[in-house]
């Protein structure tokens, strides 16, 4: 049974996986950002990482690690390998494709140790192998009683084991 860990705008956020769904302009991203404002233990990133062009993925992760005391080096390393980023670690972010930049952001979010991990359209620009890795990772988190993963998208992906669906 998923436990309610937070509430925002009358929507309970439960442990495990939470789908945040709605049409274009319905406020999915705004909901994630407001959760981060209300709960400092929540993490959201602009998946394009626009302010980080001149640093490498490892430098970006080191910066994130310094802000998140429960950061998991193991998860970061495992996800880096599983998402095929090992060959790109020496490149600055501006040199990476959109999909690879999003992988860098996803690894930071998933490794952060944040109580609330906010994923904004996490499957966009990813290859199928990376989508499969992300789905497996998220489904492994469904039984976690103390953390919540919020996945904002147009609809709730049927391959994920949702604990809650928040319709905006």
CATH topology: the name is: Rossmann fold
Straight-line distance between termini: 23 Å
Number of domains: 1
Low-confidence stretches: none
Principal-axis shape: globular
Q: How would you name the CATH homologous superfamily?
A: P-loop containing nucleotide triphosphate hydrolases
State the major sheet: 5 strands, parallel
Mean pLDDT: 97
Would you report the number of β strands?
7
Task: Describe it.
- This protein is of the alpha/beta class.
- The chain has a single domain (4-167), classed as Rossmann fold (3-Layer(aba) Sandwich).
- Helices cover 35% and strands 20% of the residues.
- The protein is built from five helices and seven strands, in the order βββαβαααβαββ.
- It has a five-stranded parallel β-sheet with strand order 4-5-6-3-7, sandwiched between helices. It has a two-stranded antiparallel ribbon with strand order 1-2.
- Helix 2 runs parallel beside helix 4 (98-111) and helix 3 packs antiparallel against helix 4.
- It is globular and about 45 Å long.
- The two termini are 23 Å apart.
- The mean pLDDT is 97.
């Amino acid at each position: 049974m998923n436990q309610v860990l937070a509430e925002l705008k009358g929507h309970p956020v439960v442990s495990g996986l939470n789908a945040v769904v709605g049409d274009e302009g319905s406020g999915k991203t705004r909901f994630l950002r407001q959760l981060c404002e209300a709960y400092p233990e929540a993490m959201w990133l602009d998946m394009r990482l626009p302010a980080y062009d001149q640093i490498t993925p490892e430098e970006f992760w080191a910066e994130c690690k310094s802000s998140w005391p429960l950061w998991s080096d193991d998860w970061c390393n495992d996800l880096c390998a599983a998402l095929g980023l090992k060959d790109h670690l020496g490149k600055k972010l501006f040199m990476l494709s959109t999909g690879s930049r999003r992988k860098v952001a996803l690894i930071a979010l998933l490794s952060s140790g944040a109580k609330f991990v906010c994923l904004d359209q996490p499957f966009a620009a990813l290859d199928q192998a990376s989508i499969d890795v992300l789905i497996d990772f998220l489904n492994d988190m469904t039984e976690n009683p103390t953390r919540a993963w919020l996945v904002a998208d147009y609809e709730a992906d049927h391959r994920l084991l949702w604990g809650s669906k928040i319709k905006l």
